[in-house]
Amino acid sequence: MESFLSTSKAVLSKLFNYKRIRIVLGNGTCDLDSAISTLIQAFSEYLDGIKNNEKDLAVIPLMNIPEKEYRLKTEVVFFMKRHSISSNLLIFRDQIDLKALKENVEIKLEIVLVDHHNLPNEDMYLMESIIKIIDHRPQDKRWPWTGRKVYLENVGSCATLVARNLFDKHPEVIDSQISSLLRGPILIDTYNLSKKVDRATSMDIEIIEALEKIGSLDLDRNKVFNEIFNAKSDISELTVDDLLIRDLKETSGVPITVLPILVKDFLDLQGSLKSLENFVLSKNITIIIVMGLDLTSEKVFRDIAIFSLATDQLKKKIIEALLSAQPSLELTLIKEINNKDENFNLVLYEQKNVRITRKQILPIIQNTISSECQC
Questions:
Q1: Which GO molecular function terms does the record list (predicted)?
Q2: Residue 351 to residue 289: CA distance in whole angstroms
Q3: Which of the listed residues 233, 265, 281 is the one where a domain comes to its end?
Q4: What is the DSSP track for 266-296?
């Protein structure tokens, strides 16, 4: 793996010597699943190129964040170091000019999307370059991707699909390092195959067992899960501003951030409300949804807050949609904060149905915004 990553990094200085450049692009949160899926799928694409004698092809695994934000991804930093992958072997979004590559008529730019299947507005220019999509989210009807190779399956982790692809195409390269790299995000995304959380599918379990067998891995999954989760929960070096952008996604102009702690505990941190206000003002928006998660005990706890400025027109509709969603989030009001001086409002709910994650909440928000716009 290190040899491939070194080769890809070296290619950056001579990209225009290649006729085809294939970028494997993870999602904008660059969480563990996205980061590992990006690396392993890029390795698979690289091996495809060697097998097919495609000497004019360069393959680049691209972390879809600026390099300066990498330190915020504490579990990714930990897990990469654990597998001897230093940050200087990784390629970040601000280290390559995709627009220049797209506009160069002598280069064919090819994009493989992993762990997402839609494009934000700022990446719409890449639309025609997409050749393949691998994702474990429900199909977004707005993004059918006709004419591309599409691998969308409802499994716990995108790494499961990437691992299956590697088993099918290049099983000979799956050693202990690659097996361990792939197992980590599957364990994290399925909460250690928890039956209560109910995110693991039969395919996730089959792939983990196959990885453990072929890689002769330590079978103590609890130890692996706890190490990664502890790294993910380590916010000792992060500010409240860092926490808001650490795991952030946006849908229909509404940002949804997931915290490694409960929102009620985040609100106890100094400057948290001011940070929320500054965030929405800096983005020129009026609302943000904040989801909290606590896995420090044997039980899973979730809560969710809607922070909005007084000028916001969507809060009421979004809250109604969340309260009436099916399956139910089982929301119980914890508290509401009205700050008339600062002109903002925050409503905090306990989420008793811990099986519902951001993946299920995203389409709820999308549908709510779409309905509101049609009115």
A1: exopolyphosphatase activity
A2: 13
A3: 233
A4: HTTSTTHHHHHHHHHHHTT-SEEEEEEEE-S
| Burial class, 151, CB count within 10 angstroms (exposed 0-12 / middle 13-18 / buried 19+) | middle
Which ranges of the chain have pLDDT less than 50?
375
Lookup: tokens for 227:
């190490």
DSSP strands (E only) in the chain: 20-25, 57-63, 91-92, 108-114, 130-135, 149-152, 248-251, 254-258, 287-294, 301-309, 331-339, 344-351
**Tell me, what's the pLDDT at 166?**
98
Pairing status of strand 344-351 against strand 149-152: unpaired
Residues 223 and 204: their CA atoms lie apart, in Å, by 18
Q: Residues with Cβ < 8 Å from 255, sequence gap 6 or more?
A: 248, 249, 279, 283, 285, 288, 289
> Residue 368 is which amino acid?
T
Domains in the chain: how many in total?
A: 2
**Adjacent-strand bridge partners of 250:** 255
The dihedrals phi and psi of 308, each to the nearest 5 degrees, come to: -145, 150
Among candidate residues 335, 326, 193, 195, the one with its CA nearest the CA of residue 262: 335
Q: How many CA atoms lie within 13 A of 287 on its CB side?
A: 21
Residue 179 lies in a domain: yes
C-beta of residue 135 within 8 angstroms of C-beta of residue 114: yes
Give the whole-angstrom CA distance, residue 328 versus residue 375.
25
pTM score, two decimals? 0.89
Sign of CA dihedral 307, 311, 316, 318: negative
For 108-167, how does the pLDDT look when each residue is reduced to its tens digit (9 = 90+)?
999 999 999 999 889 999 999 999 999 998 888 888 899 999 999 999 999 999 999 999
What CATH number corresponds to the domain at position 35? 3.90.1640.10
